[in-house]
Amino acid sequence: xxxxxxxxxxxxxxxxxxxxxxxxxxxxxxxxxxxxxxxxxxxxxxxxxxxxxxxxxxxxxxxxxxxxxxxxxxxxxxxxxxxxxxxxxxxxxxxxxxxxxxxxxxxxxxxxxxxxxxxxxxxxxxxxxxxxxxxxxxxxxxxxxxxxxxxxxxxxxxxxxx
Length: 162
Prior knowledge:
- The protein is of the alpha+beta class.
- 40% of the residues lie in helices and 13% in strands.
- A four-stranded mixed beta sheet has the order 1-2-3-4.
- Helix 1 (2-13) crosses helix 2.
- The model has no long low-confidence stretch (mean pLDDT 76).
């Protein structure tokens, strides 16, 4: 599973022929205990190898929890974790916003303003409403199946899947 995910990510990244490095962010709601290994190490290792074969290196990784961020490779601990609220008016927050990665404590989905046709926005809202009315376990299972299906193909997802 990790290698397939890494190959899919690499396929997207190599579409930019000038790309030679990336910075990744891993978002999680679970803060590890001091000394505990970071999650998804196997995925990051697979991604490192696949990208290296394409001439792209991982320059840095950021580990983001609900309340802090820190370097991915460093052992977790309060001495290196930076509270997210200290980044509110910083270049780091500007980067989070620019990359579409703002972390909101509400756990609610907020749609951006539609930049295409209004009917697309309405369709997305209807899908969100339908998902919200389903039992959470069913919605999560179906989302997982859709995501795995898209990762299993070697093509970009269709507009309908997206």
